Amino acid sequence: MTTPAATPGAPGRWRGILFPPPNHENKDNPIGSSFALTVIAVFVQGLSRFGYTLLIGNLLGTEILGQVNTAISLALFLVLLWPQASGNAASKFIAMARGRGNADEQLSVSLYASRSAAIGMAVLSVTAVVLSVLALGLPLSYALSTGLLVISLSAYNFVRGVRTGNNQFVTTTAWDCISSFVTLTLLVIVLLGELTPLLLLPLSVGYLMYAIPSWPLKGGSKLPSVLKKEILMFTLWASINIITAAGLLQLSLLLGYRFDTLAAVGQYSAAVAIATPASMLSSSMLVALAPSVARMFTAGDHANMKRQLDSIMRVMVLVFLPVFGVGIIWAEPLIHVLYGARIHEFEGSVPLLIVLFFAVSATSFNAANSRLNGGESWGVRVLALCNAVGMLLGVGAILWLGPTMGVMASAIGYMVACFISALAPMIVVWVHDRMRWGGLLTRIVVGYVLILGCLFFGLRHSELWVTVVLTVTFCAVWALISWGDLAPRVRMVTGRLRKN
């Protein structure tokens, strides 16, 4: 008589979630499930970053906030130069190995990419310490903490890529929750103990806690030289792509440090902390979509790939344009609620927040980026070129306007770069894959016209009831012009609710 296998207890289940082996199955979770888990993961990580700005800003003021966020921006910028792209390479090539059913190659890719990331983080951590002292004039404690933050953040981004490539979204979410809780707990201890030189340490501890359990230590057989070269070339182009797409936000803060006061940089940091969490939601959708695109492209399933890409793009526009539109309409009340304890120091954040909401809204319609990253080899180069043009024009705007406009020039330059680097890849994929996006692009333009109209009226009439009426009107008009995409999804959701 065969004895049924014992059901694993709670400790066993948690061990399987937190310390899973590599996933060799040639299939993915449903995109909705992957997206939901990634949203949770990104939300809790964004909460820890937002908690840094909110707690330090309210308790210690704009000047110390400016110093801390300048150090964080330097670390984030340096990580973009190689380690984060190594994580993207791990995600793509692990997913492609799964698509081919090659478990040995999957392990070897993880190990090879980890060595590439480790070399990059070692060099860049030393660079961070030197730049913090010589270029930014930060205290030595902050400089050393910045070097440690580069190592921990690099490891975090790389391991996130490994887990994503292995389709381990539950594990990713669990560790994000754990590391964020530890980060905020340690930050509160540092603040209560008035240990100002250690303000950056909680972030580093949280990122390392996330990364260490899944850092690849064993691989399969030796990778062919052709595949090694392909991984390195992808990492190189992905680095250019990432630095030109995401690097300008950090660079804009560092340039603002040059053109304006430390207090103004603190105001800009506060605006960035509010504007970027919502954009993380769209980024989480890309994280969920990227391995699926790479696997389907490798398997030759182009029809389903295009169908999924179109659906994700429509959801992004449907959801995120009104999210940022409402954020723009409510920018002033948001600043007053979040920084009421020192509102006299943070009133200058309101116009900066409005411009940043416009900027990050454009980066939310970026499903085309997954198509270019996960498809043909030329895709990542085209994406890098689009982002490079956007970044050059953005930096040019900051340098031109900076002497007269201070940190506002940083916000405007970032907005210019965002719109260029978001629109160009969308047009490339629209034309190349013959996507039916003409009406969608028209709707995006109409949406921005509505937002500008509400903003113009709201600035002339600042009463709260006017803000509420503008919000309701904007959302109602947007729902009406988007009904073709909204109605099927409403029916889908209500149908599932009835079944449950």
TrEMBL record:
<keyword id="KW-0472">Membrane</keyword>
<protein>
    <recommendedName>
        <fullName>Lipopolysaccharide biosynthesis protein</fullName>
    </recommendedName>
</protein>
<keyword id="KW-1003">Cell membrane</keyword>
<feature type="transmembrane region" description="Helical">
    <location>
        <begin position="179"/>
        <end position="210"/>
    </location>
</feature>
<keyword id="KW-1133">Transmembrane helix</keyword>
<feature type="transmembrane region" description="Helical">
    <location>
        <begin position="380"/>
        <end position="401"/>
    </location>
</feature>
<feature type="transmembrane region" description="Helical">
    <location>
        <begin position="440"/>
        <end position="459"/>
    </location>
</feature>
<feature type="transmembrane region" description="Helical">
    <location>
        <begin position="350"/>
        <end position="368"/>
    </location>
</feature>
<feature type="transmembrane region" description="Helical">
    <location>
        <begin position="465"/>
        <end position="486"/>
    </location>
</feature>
<feature type="transmembrane region" description="Helical">
    <location>
        <begin position="31"/>
        <end position="52"/>
    </location>
</feature>
<feature type="transmembrane region" description="Helical">
    <location>
        <begin position="311"/>
        <end position="330"/>
    </location>
</feature>
<feature type="transmembrane region" description="Helical">
    <location>
        <begin position="117"/>
        <end position="135"/>
    </location>
</feature>
<feature type="transmembrane region" description="Helical">
    <location>
        <begin position="64"/>
        <end position="82"/>
    </location>
</feature>
<dbReference type="InterPro" id="IPR050833">
    <property type="entry name" value="Poly_Biosynth_Transport"/>
</dbReference>
<keyword id="KW-0812">Transmembrane</keyword>
<feature type="transmembrane region" description="Helical">
    <location>
        <begin position="268"/>
        <end position="290"/>
    </location>
</feature>
<feature type="transmembrane region" description="Helical">
    <location>
        <begin position="231"/>
        <end position="256"/>
    </location>
</feature>
<feature type="transmembrane region" description="Helical">
    <location>
        <begin position="142"/>
        <end position="159"/>
    </location>
</feature>
<feature type="transmembrane region" description="Helical">
    <location>
        <begin position="407"/>
        <end position="431"/>
    </location>
</feature>
